[in-house]
Design brief:
The structure holds two protein chains of two kinds. Chain A has 32 helices and two strands. By secondary structure, chain A is an all-alpha fold. In chain A, strand 1 (64-73) and strand 2 form a beta hairpin. In chain A, helix 11 runs antiparallel to helix 19 (391-418). A two-stranded antiparallel sheet of chain B has the order 1-2. The chains are: A mainly alpha, B mainly alpha. The interface between A and B is large, with 66 and 79 residues.
Chain lengths: 739, 518
């Protein structure tokens, strides 16, 4: 076996070891913490680079696994393992690279924090968990790492634990994602029950391979739904929680209470992408229908292709992929009924969330919250991409988004750092002049996110999604939602740019809240105009900006190398595809939508930049009621507070009451009856039976005195009596036996 | 090893030590504690010796000592260990020294206090190794008495009532046990668990009970069911199972925290142990008949206690309910296995998975719950007895090590993968999902609510701004760190490598499953 496959565990193990080492040293060992943490990440990155190259090499390995025994269950054994395939290889590379840059940036950003060492411990723990998650071949191991990612996120969101809002946000994140995880957990158990394994790929015996899948699609559950669909949807619950999809999105914006590098690392680039990754990993299960499997049974290669079906949409692929597309998407003769319902749910949830979160982002004024909602929205696009176009489309957006969103968050962090911890965009303005490097990098990120054509990666990845949605007959609705979302994305990002970088500086003095906790955690220059951040923070920005541009080249319709790579066959230049019906037209259309969004926003905010921080927002002037609804996030939090949380508290109160009053009452009632009976017999003894028996009375008095001595609460006496009684019992038995 | 009566010695040392210590009335507090720690170190050493010499490759009884005791009644002194027993013996050997050390100096009657603790340990060792009802029951009761006095004399303000409630409740259960076993002994002439199990499986027990105890014209089946219920009551109270649990929150919260460590860490396991050693092997048919009702009770135990824990404002009461919740998973696994309804190798694997999970969960819970109450003790030591959820706030700033270590235990308790709680719960759920899917699905609600209240605890006690009252609160001392260190290390070790414990019990479980299966 390939040495690298066998030792793939080293990739997560090195950051884990780093976390362990840092946890054991004293708080003041700052240099040690930074060195170990970044060093660990660097080694993992080099290792990832090597394994990535192996998968990208022509005729390199496509999928190799390694399993080991974890725990016995009677005659059977529960096995765990990891897998090296294009999906895990590109993810480890992305996580170690983006993660590494954020680690470096954090060394500057968190320099003044008193818990600096702890911060790097948690960061390393997080990276280890995330890397473990992406290399897992066992869904159980994936779940283990999934929860560890959750707990690292809890620790990092609540890093400034003295702020009540941060402590609350951490708890909210953990619990909201755990709600989804319960679904995931049940899905796992069910899958385990039916297939007898949780290893994804295991030489034909894995739970994502043909044998297991054909069994799953043939079993019906409630409402005639195939079991594969039911399990797929349960697992999707977990993905919805982690990736902040509606209605479990509420934790993600609150998670911005954590330090900005945390927001960049886990609430934008990597952790929230875990949900999308999970669906990509179990895609064969989610997409499984009898038709797909039938198509797949013709040839093994088609099975792979049909499971990925990335060529659906505009790009004609190999013959196998054509079969697969027909099978997955159902041609006209089969109708949409042949499409896996789970895939349609994924598509719709993604599309709805994409629009919903984009709408909310329009009404926000906190620089990080706008980005947070844009993350929620973009994650929606990723799910939609997987749903309509297969893992190639969804994962491509995941990777490009990881770069430009990390860039945007780190840029926002740089702005916040420069503006003395001001996060309200109304109190910024004109910062482009003070922070030119940040401004340039941020502008690249903004254009990538908005999908400005040709040069920026976001354009290509988003176009792929819209294209696939348009081509698929059953996803016209999601396509429209996606287009609207694209317009809004361009709109709110331009709005943010105008508020932050253009016009005149409206801050002037440090914000009142600054006196609080986070101020002493991050260094504050005092009052005055914003200033550019140090090189340790700007360099990562520039590197990320570079990738935000060039990554697009790997997923153009002409050269869809990324999709080809994920499917295990190379991709070649095919200029002909550009001129297929629809491809260019749709590109033109989405370009128009983006420019429309930018133009409207520029007209609202750019032409006359606001000068007063308390001025009414341009949208609010025109649509006051709608704006309030958006600003208050459609009142989802309030709805939950009134329903779920209240229900939880009421149930707790009920069971507590049941215990204290009812059950304890029964016990007290019984004891009352017993005691009462005791009194009755005592009265009967004393006044009925013994009446007239003077001798007997004297006897009782004597024995009463003796007994009260026994009840004097002296343990030794009790125990002596116990011992004597025990001896007597034993003697009686023995004597009885002898006689 | 055969000639060396290690199990008898293991039980005898704390028993004799306990009586000697109690008799040494003039001992100072330091002397009493020092003696107790020394005396509890010997069983720890013996338990490790036992572990090293235990052969995990077989499900048979090992280190057996068997002597005729009361010949005419056929009463034997019969001890031995299999995987299940040895796991409990090890737990017992670990938690007792931890509790003694966490007690600190007991100024009032120190020798008596620690003597009772040792006596309790002796009773536990006896219970976990005995294989004949007669002396098993003596040890079972023997462990109850010290617990009663420990609550009654050293507990909180409402200690007397709680102790009495605890005692009477458990006593009622014990009477059920005693009567049931007397009936069985009359019918079969045996107190031996193994013999009774064989008779129970073959149906002879029912026939004999029908012949011998045919009062009021009851049939053999009905009598057996009554006998089953008698035994069941004894164990259901001890674990406890909903609705026999009302003694627990007040007993756990009124007892001093080191005593509660013993109650939750060890004594609650006696009940689960009884289910596994006695109820499941002897009464498989009765378990199967009542399985739906039993599973509902287990689900209710899990869900109700999790919600009730969420409603508590006293840390000890919260952990008390959490303890009920965690043992509920054990009962869920046992009842699902007992439900029967299938056969064959695949079914056996599910049953073995659930039972391995139950055994692992017993050990894990003993460790984690003991550690949690140990932390409550440390908190009480600092706050002068205050332990309300709202009495603190922001302690992490001044006591980061405290927060970190307690946080590990809390996350182990809520079943975070990578720490010990998860492996056991996963195995239980894995098995139960195949054996009784609906019960597993309903029980997952418990997993969620547990996370809610435990994180609320962390938030209220450790996070937020520092409560001004505790600005001088010291972090954990070296001694305190040392007390929780072994448990913490084991939490990580068993979380990553649960096979360490499962390997010990797997063959025993295979043997149990083989016996249960028709």
């Amino acid at each position: 076996m390939n040495w690298f496959v066998k030792n793939l565990w080293l990739i997560p193990a090195i950051p884990l070891l780093a976390a362990g080492l840092i946890a054991l040293v004293k708080q003041r060992e700052r240099t040690f913490a930074v060195a170990v943490s970044i060093g660990g990440m660097a080694i993992s990155f080099l290792f990832s680079m090597v394994v990535f190259l192996q998968t990208v090499w022509p005729d390199g390995l496509f999928r190799e696994t390694y399993s080991f025994d974890w725990v016995q269950m009677g005659e059977a054994t529960l096995r765990l393992g990891w897998v090296l395939d294009p999906l895990s290889a590109c993810m480890v590379l992305m996580v170690t690279f983006v993660g590494g840059l954020i680690f470096i940036y954090s060394a500057g950003y968190m320099a003044a924090d008193k818990n600096f060492t702890r911060f790097f411990c948690f960061l390393s723990l997080f990276a280890a968990a995330m890397l473990g998650l992406v290399i897992s071949n066992s869904l159980l191991l994936l779940f283990v790492c999934w929860e560890l990612v959750g707990v690292s996120s809890y620790l990092l969101i609540g890093f400034w634990y003295e702020k009540p809002s941060a402590a609350a946000a951490a708890k909210k994140a953990f619990i909201t994602t755990r709600i989804g995880d319960i679904g995931f957990f049940i899905g796992l158990l069910w899958l385990y029950r039916e297939t007898g394994t949780l290893l994804c790929y295991d030489g034909g015996n894995g739970c994502l391979e043909a044998t297991a899948l054909s069994k799953l699609v043939s079993i019906g559950t409630i409402g005639g739904m195939a079991l594969s669909t039911a399990i797929g949807l349960l697992i999707f619950c977990g993905a919805m929680g982690k990736s902040g999809q509606f209605p479990l999105h509420v934790w993600l914006p609150d998670a911005m209470e954590g330090p900005t590098p945390v927001s960049a690392l886990i609430h934008a680039a990597t952790m929230v992408a875990a949900g999308v990754f999970l669906i990509a990993r179990v895609y064969p299960l989610v997409a499984a229908t009898p038709a797909v499997l039938h198509a797949g049974s013709d040839s093994p290669a088609a099975m792979v292709a049909s499971a990925h079906h990335a060529d659906a949409g505009s790009h004609e692929g190999s013959a196998e992929a054509t079969v697969a597309r027909t099978a997955v998407h159902g041609d006209e003769s089969h109708g949409p009924g042949k499409v896996s319902p789970a895939l349609r749910v994924v598509t719709w949830v993604g599309a709805l969330t994409a629009l919903f979160a984009a709408l909310i982002a329009v009404g926000q004024n906190d620089i990080k919250r706008i980005l947070a909602y844009s993350t929620v929205s973009q994650l929606g696009y990723m799910f939609m991409g997987i749903g309509v176009g297969g893992i190639g489309v969804g994962m491509f957006h995941l990777i490009t988004h990881a770069f430009f969103k990390a860039l945007l968050f780190l840029g926002a962090g740089s702005v916040i750092h420069g503006c003395h911890h001001e996060q309200d965009i109304r109190r910024m303005g004109g910062i482009g002049k003070f922070m030119p490097v940040t401004f340039a990098a941020y502008a690249v990120g903004m254009m990538a996110l908005s999908g400005v054509p040709l040069l920026f990666s976001g354009f290509w990845s988003k176009d792929e999604i819209l294209n696939a949605a348009w081509m698929w007959p059953v996803s016209k609705g999601p396509f429209l939602l996606g287009v609207l979302g694209a317009f809004l994305t361009a709109f709110y990002m331009t709005r943010q740019m105008c508020y932050v970088f253009f016009g005149a500086y409206r801050g002037g003095e440090a914000h009142a809240d600054d006196v609080g906790h986070s101020a002493d955690a991050e260094h504050s220059h005092g009052n005055g105009s914003p200033s550019e951040s140090p090189a340790v923070m700007t360099w990562p920005l520039l590197i990320l900006a570079f990738f935000a541009v060039v990554l697009g080249a790997f997923g153009t319709p002409v050269w869809p190398s990324f999709e080809g790579y994920l499917e295990g066959h190379g991709a070649s230049f095919q200029f002909g595809k550009l001129f297929q019906p629809g491809t260019l037209g749709l590109m033109g259309f989405s370009t128009l939508v983006v420019f429309a969004g930018i133009a409207v926003s520029w007209w609202f905010y750019g032409l006359e930049p606001p000068t007063d921080p308390d001025a009414t927002d341009a949208v609010e002037q025109r649509l006051p009621r709608a704006f309030v609804l958006l600003r208050d996030k459609f009142y989802v939090d309030e709805l939950y507070a009134a329903s779920v949380i209240r229900f939880n508290a009421a149930t707790a109160w009920f069971f507590d009451l049941l215990d204290r009053q009812f059950l304890d009452g029964v016990v007290r009632g019984v004891s009352f009856v017993v005691t009462g009976f005791g009194w009755l017999t005592r009265l009967a003894d004393e006044f009925v039976i013994n009446l007239g028996f003077d001798q007997g009375c004297r006897g009782i008095r004597w024995s009463g005195a003796r007994t009260s001595r026994v009840q004097g609460g002296r343990v030794q006496v009790y125990l002596r009596v116990l011992g004597v009684a025990l001896v007597v019992i034993v003697l009686l038995f023995t004597w009885g036996g002898l006689g | 090893m055969d000639s060396f009566a290690i199990l008898s010695i293991l039980t005898a040392i704390p028993l004799i030590g306990g009586f000697v210590l109690m008799a040494w009335r003039s001992a100072t507090a330091e002397e009493a504690r020092g003696t107790a720690i020394t005396l509890s170190a010997i069983p720890l050493f013996l338990a490790i010796l036992l572990w090293k010499n235990f052969d995990p490759g077989t499900g048979d009884l090992q280190f057996v000592e068997r002597h005729l005791w009361i010949p005419t009644l056929g009463i034997e002194y019969f001890v031995g260990v299999d995987g299940l027993s040895i796991l409990m013996v090890l737990l017992c050997a670990i938690v007792v020294p931890m509790s003694i050390w966490a007690s600190g100096l007991v100024r009032e009657n120190g020798s008596l206090h620690f003597g009772l603790v040792l006596l309790l340990q002796g009773g536990l060792f006896g219970t976990f190794t005995a294989l004949s009802f007669f002396h098993w029951f003596i040890f079972w009761e023997l462990s109850l008495l010290p617990a009663f006095f420990l609550i009654k004399f050293w507990g909180g303000p409402d200690r007397s009532r709680s102790a009495t409630q605890f005692f009477i409740y458990t006593m009622v259960g014990s009477i059920g046990l005693l009567v049931a076993f007397m009936a069985m002994a009359m019918a079969t002439g045996s107190f031996d668990f193994k013999v009774l199990a064989e008779l129970g499986r073959s149906g002879e027990l029912t026939a004999k009970l029908g012949e011998t105890v045919s009062v009021w014209g009851l049939s053999g089946g009905e009598v057996t069911l009554m006998v089953f219920l008698g035994v069941f009551l004894g164990f259901a109270v001890k674990v406890p199972l909903f609705p026999f649990h009302t003694w627990l929150p007040s007993a756990y919260s009124e007892a001093t925290s080191p005593t509660t460590m013993l109650l939750t860490g060890l004594m609650s396991k006696m009940g689960v142990y009884g289910f596994l050693r006695i109820l499941l092997p002897i009464f498989p048919a009765q378990m199967a008949v009542l399985s739906t009702g039993l599973l509902w009770l287990a689900v209710l135990t899990i869900v109700a206690s999790a919600f009730a824990a969420f409603a508590q404002r006293d840390l000890k009461r919260m952990f008390a309910y959490s303890s009920i919740n965690h043992l509920g998973y054990c009962l869920l696994g046992i009842f699902a296995v007992g439900a029967g309804g299938g056969s064959g190798a695949a079914w056996g694997v599910e049953q073995a998975a659930a039972l391995n999970g139950v055994l692992l969960q017993m050990f894990n819970h003993g460790l984690t719950a003991a550690a949690l109450f140990c932390f409550v003790r440390f908190l009480e030591d600092r706050s002068g007895g205050l332990r309300g959820l709202g009495d603190f706030g922001g302690l992490r700033r001044i006591a980061p090590v405290f927060c970190g270590l307690m946080g590990i235990s809390v996350f182990a308790s809520l079943g975070l993968p990578g720490l010990n709680g998860f492996a056991g719960e996963f195995l239980i759920f894995k098995g139960v999902f195949s054996l009784a899917g609906w019960a597993a699905m309903l029980s997952t609600a418990g997993l969620l609510v547990t996370a809610v209240f435990l994180l609320t605890l962390l938030q209220r006690v450790f996070h937020g701004p520092l409560n001004e009252r505790w600005t001088l609160l010291p972090d954990l001392s070296f001694r305190e760190r040392l007390i929780v260190l072994p448990a913490t290390v084991l939490m990580f070790l068993l979380g990553v490598y649960p096979q360490l414990a499962v390997g010990l019990v797997n063959q025993t479980v295979v043997e149990m499953v083989r016996q249960i299966q028709p």
